[in-house]
Every structure is written in C-alpha cells, then in structure tokens.
Design goal:
Elements (H helix, E strand, L loop, with lengths): L16 H18 L21 H7 L2 E4 L5 E3 L2 E3 L1 H12 L6 E6 L5 H13 L4 E5 L1 H4 L3
Parallel strand pairs: 1-4, 4-5
Antiparallel strand pairs: 1-2, 2-3
Length: about 140
C-alpha cells in the first residue's frame, strides 16, 4: 500500500482494499460452514455372496429377487407371477419380515421401463430398499 503525503497534485482517489478483503474472507467462511462437508449420494445395495460355511438354502430364503425375463414374464425367487399380482405377492412375503429389501434383476435386452415399473410396484408395496442386480454382482465382482 502506498500513502500520499502532502503535495498539491489535487485529490487522489485510492480504493481501500482492507475492508473488501475482510468482507470476502467472511463470505468464504460463511460458505464453508453452510456447504456440507461430505457430499450425499445415493445409497446402493449389492447382494453379497454367502460365505462357504453357510447353507445356500438359508440365504435363498432371506433374499428376495424379482426377475424380469425378455418376454416380460416376472418371477419372484423363481416363482412365476404377473405384474398385476406382484404388489400383493410382495406384501405377503414381507408382512412378517423386519428387513424390507428386494433385488431386481432384468434381462439385458429388456427396456428399463419394465424394470422401473417393477421397482415402482415394490416401493408401493412398502419395500424400503430396492437393489439392482447385474451379471457382475451375481458373480461377486
């Protein structure tokens, strides 16, 4: 910073930068406090393969998988159903369970609209968490 001492050169107009820097520092601190520190994303669920020591039958009873085939036929744990009975069947399955988790597996050649409809029906049946299964998650990758 410079300072003009005396002299008869007329009025010297200099912007005082100190208050502007103080205001900017206060604004930076306010924005740092307001902005969340950890960005929140979507929660994802991936089915975990059962440990070798557990029986596969016990794990199959706990996990509910809605499978949508290429011809738009729907299976719940290999039990055939249709779109009209899907919500009622899911309500029957989950009425005695505390954990409301279902996985949806769609055929790769199927349009996502059919999978989204199944997710919507599951949410309407009171399912808390819906996970998507792919070939990679099935093989444990």
């Amino acid at each position: 910073m410079s300072m003009a001492v005396g002299g008869g050169h007329g009025v010297v107009v200099d912007i005082n930068m100190t208050p502007m820097i103080d205001v900017l520092l206060v604004l930076i601190i306010i924005f740092m406090v307001i902005t969340p520190l950890i960005p929140k994303g979507l929660e994802t669920l991936v089915p975990q393969p059962a440990p070798p020591s557990q029986q596969q039958a016990a794990a199959d009873l706990r996990t509910v998988v809605i499978q949508i085939n290429k011809d738009r036929s729907i299976l719940i744990n290999n039990e055939p159903t249709d779109e009209n009975r899907l919500g009622a069947r899911l309500e029957d399955i989950f009425k005695t369970r505390a954990e409301r988790v279902v996985f949806v597996k769609g055929d790769p050649d199927l349009e996502f609209q059919s999978v989204a409809r199944a997710i919507d029906i599951a949410k309407g049946a009171g399912i808390d968490k819906v996970g998507l299964m792919t070939k990679g998650t099935e093989s444990g990758q």
